[in-house]
Every structure is written in C-alpha cells, then in structure tokens.
## 1
Amino acid sequence: MSVPPVLTSTYVKGGEVGYARDGNPTWSAFEEAIGALEGGRALAFSSGMGAVSAVLGVVPLGAVVAAPMDAYTGTRFLMTDLEKKGRLRFAPVDVTDAGATLSVLEDGGMLWIESPTNPMLRIADIEQLAQGAHERGATVVVDNTFATPLLQNPLELGADVVVHSATKYLSGHSDVLLGAVVTRDDGLYDEYYEARVLGGAIPGPMETFLALRGMRTLGVRLERQLANAMELATRLDADARVTKVRYPGLGNDPGHELAARQMRGFGAIVSFELTSVEASDALCEAIELIAHTTSLGGVETTLERRGTWEGEELTPGSLIRMSVGCENVEDLWSDLSSALGPPSTV
Ligand SMILES: Cc1ncc(COP(=O)(O)O)c(C=O)c1O
C-alpha cells in the first residue's frame, strides 16, 4: 500500500539504476504520481528552486527569458543573477497583458508564467500566452505551485513545462523541501534528467516519501482550504478595516472571469491590504491561531507581510499574503477579526 523510503547510496550491479544520484524507487513513485496528475513525465528535485535552476540551466546562451514582474522572488533573483553572468536576458513582464508579454519574446527564448502570481494573485491567460509564445519560437514554462495540478493543468493549456515547489501544497504539512518538473517533451526531459544527475540537486528519499503521503490527501485538503479561503476573502472584503482584498474567487477581482474559465477552483491564497504598513505589522503580531511565518500550502493557516522581504518593492507595503489552511473557519475569522483591532478613527 505504501512505497517505503529507500535509503541507499548505491545499488548492487545488474539492476536498472547504477548509483543513487541517478534514481531511487521512492522518487520514481512520487514522479509517477505528479506526472499522472499533470499529464506528463516528471522529475523530482531537491527543492522548488532546484527545479527552477534545472529548467533555466538549459535555455540557450543569451536567450530572452520573460517572467512576471511579481513572480516568486527566488525565481526573479535567480534570473537576475543569471543575467548578470551573461547567461540569459531577463525581461520582467505583466503576464496579464498578453500583447506586451509576447512582444518581448524571441526565437529560442522562454516565457515563464506564474498564475496566480505570488503574491499579487494576478491571473495570466496560459492558453493564449502559450500559443503566442510558440508562434515566436519560445518555450513556455508554468510554475503551477499555487494552483496545484488539481486546480489547473498547464500542459493541457499548451505549456511545455510545469514546475512545482512541492514544498507547498503537494507535500502540504510544512515539513518538506522538494521540487518537481513535468513535461511531455522527451528532449527536455532528458536535459533536465542530465541537469539533475550532474548538478546533483537530487531529492531525498524521505522527502519524496513524505510528499507522496501528503499527496494522498491533496484533494480533501484543498476542498477545505478553498472553502475557507472563499469565506475569509468574502468577510475581509466586506470589512471596513481592510482596504483591498486580492482573491480570484471574488466576483470583483480583475482575474475572476479568466480564473473561472482556466481553473477548477480559485486556490487558497488570499492577499489583502490594510490602511498602513504599521496596521499590517500589528496584525502579524496580534494573531494567535494563525502562524506569522513565510511559505504556504500547509494545513495550518499562515500569513506574513510580503514587503518585509527584499525584492518585494513592487508589492504594496501593507500587503499581507495569507495561506489558508484546514482549521475551522470560525476559529480563523475570530483570530483575524480580533487581530484587525478596532476600526480606525482617523
Ligand atoms: C511560486 C513558487 N515557486 C517556487 C518556489 C521555490 O520553492 P522552494 O522553496 O521549494 O525551493 C516558491 C517558494 O516559496 C514559490 O512560492
């Protein structure tokens, strides 16, 4: 019933795999699961960034890589670093503006999409962008961490590659760092496989075991998390102490219509803004049940003010990104509502 964590650094000669940097039965079981969910062949990496590095590592020298200006900071920092080293040319774009995004692409380049983006929760039209990017000869990669394969399948929408930080929803219990790449392109698969073997960013057998265990409940966790997120977003949106709520599930969100078409659910990240940076910092201090921490996708609700991180200069200062968990929604609202404090008299 359960694939065990196979803890070995090498194998007796005569089998399919020679050395443990080349393969492991526990990785294979995880890869089979995520590959089946995304509709492609998967490779596991030591972290989401390990997966991102492998994908960026095979773009042609000097190629243009367009990515959301509000993509995950680690991804943007890596692209900026690779640009400084002359490896590629990084073009930050607004992925909600297909015309402007496609106009920067060149033959042999790459379009990197996040949808919803982290932390602004902007929605990109993956199908339209993939079609336009392919017409211009660019490869299309989608970081599907926020949506998970249960809510969105980018390969079905025309993307060439899907990247995951399996650290988040796939593992789901805030106890694992893990990444994955999924593709239907055998040539790219071979390149990523070689990048993993030679680069050495291999996953741990325990991590893939825990991720597999987590994925067994992905569906039920998401069901609860999505319902909680919708309820909290709706209540925050109606609350005078909150100045703006970003959640694609809300009818008034600019990405709502597209998300309703493209996704099978709106995700469980809710971003919201308060009257000031100080008010947001006070909320982060005051919460008791919800954890004040970075990262996301676990069964526990967590939040943080994203502006506390370097690289979030374009993010509104007071913006709080909340990863909604599986707790009782009334407990969550009671914590949030008391941490929001009395209405401002100013
Ligand atoms: C959207 C997204 N992609 C990639 C990563 C990187 O993943 P990891 O932390 O597993 O390296 C993160 C981490 O927060 C993320 O939010």
## 2
Amino acid sequence: MPMTRKLFWEDMYLKEFDARVVSADASRLVLDQTAFNPRGGGLVSDVGTIDRVEVGEVVKEGDEIVHVMKAEGSWAPGQPVHCAIDWEKRHRIMRMHTAAHLLSAVVNSETGALITGNQISPDESRVDFNLENFDKEKMSAYVDRVNREAGRGLEVTTFFMKREEALSNPGFVKLANAMPPTLAELRIVKIGDADTQADGGVHVSNTKEIGTVVALGTENKGKSNRRLHFTVRP
Ligand SMILES: [Zn+2]
C-alpha cells in the first residue's frame, strides 16, 4: 500500500484539503494524503473534521497515518472526502513548537544542557532539560533571550538530508539517533542561524509569528531534570 502523502510537510499552512479514502473501518480512516499532523515528537495531534465528522486524534501506526474519528461513518476505499484542520489549535502548536526549539537552543548554548523531553499542546507546553541548576532568574533570562531571538524575524526552512550526512553534524545527532534507522533521509528544520535539528513536526515560517513566550513555572523532575512550563501570547 502506498504511503500517505504528507501534505503537512509540503505546506504547513494548508488548512483544508481533499483526499481519497485508502482504507477504513467504522471510525478509523487512512487517506491517500493528509494535512493532519499526527501525534508524535512531543506534539499533540491535529484535530478538525473529515466530511464534517470530528477527528478525535491522528496517530502513526507503523508507516500508516490513522485518523481516529469521533463518530462512526460509512467510509469506503476510493471515496473522496473533504478535510478541514482546526487551524486555531494547529497554529498555536506551530508557534509553541518553534518556541520550544528556540528554548532548547538558548538553554543549550547557555548551559550545555540537552532537552530530554517535551510536550507541545495548543494552550500550555513544557520542555525538560538535563540540568541541575535552573532557578527562576535564570529561567526568565533564558525566556527573555528566546523572545529577542524570535523578535529577529528568523525564517524557518525545512529540507531533507541523507541520514549519514545529518548524523555527521554534531548539532543534529541527539535527535537524529532517535529516528527509525530505516529512514534513508531525515527532515531537517532550520530556524535562521539559531537552531537546526532533524525534526518531523510543524513550525511557523517566521519566528515573528511566535508572539511572546511566557514562562509559567518550573518543576524538578528528578535530580538533574528540570521542567519548564510555558505558553505563547497573545
Ligand atoms: Zn521539534
């Protein structure tokens, strides 16, 4: 079965699209192409509608992207469908995710710490760092620097790179290693001169769209693991 075409990689601003059903059971749909970004890499899944039926979640199952519907429908292979992303939520995910990359770049350059996990949601997000010392003042200094970086209006670009080439670049290695070894090419996301990483998620095209990053608090998650909660405004 051919893989679903990932429209969310081709145009991260695509809000509505037409597709055909490849396979379906009562509430799970696989399409020939989709702009719904599935859950993964710390990002929550997009939601929206397919033929006006609500999409509850979109998940990756092996090579397949499965749209888990909130109601049952009579979907048949080959059937054309019209799909709409909940753009308000998606755009906030894009802003939060790009902010998280800038945060990890800033904290890494200030402390050498690496990101150990993240959860990107429309309303509130969090990033974990392997860091022992992370007080309130330091945190707000990092967030200020992130806002200065974002305010520079950095262009965000994506491209594909051979796996070996990406792995040979020290800046990409930590995440590239987490990618399935079967992938011959990795997708690279570059935020101006601030950050370059192998990454499968959705981003804004210019850091000015992030708005203002606001720290919501920190938490200790183990001896050398610090969690930062944040959001973007307005
Ligand atoms: Zn990312």
